Amino acid sequence: MIWLTGILLIYLFQIVTIVLLEYRHPSKAIAWLMILFIFPLIGFVMYYFLAQEYKKRRLVRRKEKQALLLNFMQEPERAGAMRNAGMNNEPRLFGLLDSFSEAPITSRNETTVLTNAPHTYTAMLEAIEQAQHHIHVESYIVRDDTIGNTFRELLERKSRAGIEVRVIVDGIGSYHLPASYLANLKRAGVQAEVFLPPSIAFFDKRMNYRNHRKIMVIDGSVGFVGGINIGDEHLGADAKLGFWRDTHLRISGEAVRTLQDTFLTDWLFVSGQTVNGPVYAPNYGGTGVEEVQIIASGPDKQGDAILEMYFGAICAAKQRVYLTTPYFIPEASIEMALKTAAASGVDVRIIVPGRPDSRLVHWASLAYLEELMEAGVRFYQYQKGFIHAKTMIVDELLASVGTANMDLRSFFSNFELNAVLFDARTIRRLAADFTEDLRDSEQVRLEAFRHRPRIARGKEILARILSPLL
Predict the structure, then answer these.
(1) Spatial distance between the Cα atoms of 36 and 465, rounded to a whole number of angstroms
(2) Which of 4, 215, 293, 409 lies at 20 to 30 Å from 257 by C-alpha?
(3) Which domains, and CATH codes, for the chain?
(4) What are the tens digits of pLDDT across the range 315-341?
């Protein structure tokens, strides 16, 4: 009897620990309690190693950020009155965006929307070829395949020519990248590091945190950000997924300073090296006039800036909200904002994959569709291949392109990076791409969706419960 009491006390201790540590995120707590119920001891061990908060890392990163800001010769030039007339009429939304102290709304930028990988890789390789001083590359996934080796060989050649080259890959995302790939880079003089290698992340209880950012900065004056990693699957080489639809950005101007700052902060963490000086933040000499805001978020931050940006923008919408995301597991506030916008007459359309790369995530996404469609949200499933773009368009106010998916992992666990764009021309270009994607999609009809099989509903319910962990 005593042993039974002891087991019950241990089980109760595990439940109380999870509840106390996850009280800020009830859905996450429920997911872990379900795993604990199914696997009483194993579930708690998994929680201990995979899910604990990053408190120590936050302190370290805050110190890194302060050091870098002190070392830069000058901060990005902040925008004053917005050129976008609509934003000038939205003081609450502007006030929210302007409150992100580490993400200034910068002026004097020029952006180019890069639709799909062929255009993106061409632009990136051309920029690398033209580098005169340094090349900084950060990617969640790098493959040892045709395009991966094209990048590697060019980086090696530039390094041998005397250009500083720094590369960061994520330990989980690039888990299959052979050690020889980075070894070859290093032999050529490239400085290459892994962000949280799996073994270190596991024993340091940070396995659940991934650097999902995709950054490239050339000579501190040209930058790239968006959804595209470095791998042949983005060129349609994956037979299961086929054509890969994605969106990336090329940026020149003041916003590149924020991209550089984010990269160098990550570089300081992975390498222990502080890189600073005016050559890494040169004066912008172009004629760009666009306002751009680069927002970084992650478990090292005090707030959830990308989530707050999405929420604030959706709440400010009066005509339209167009979203594209490969993974749709909305946080409760985003779900409510979408419902409220649609119910009030805003044209809310969301494109999700019709050919998913993850069945469990797909089922979890479907679990949200019925109630949102009942509120007036329209969903479309992309049929041409796999859609991986992460974009949002709100009226003529702003657009967002970046690495963050519309899911809980991107909002709370991953290190992410989004560009918020205010230029009318750029917003129109992204809207045109969205319209084109609608033509390659099938609308999900509410009545037909309601009559899906019970087994499908069961999968969706289970996946939704587990979705905070996906």
Answers:
(1) 13
(2) 409
(3) 2-50 (no CATH), 55-79+106-290 (3.30.870.10), 305-469 (3.30.870.10)
(4) 999 999 999 999 999 999 999 999 999
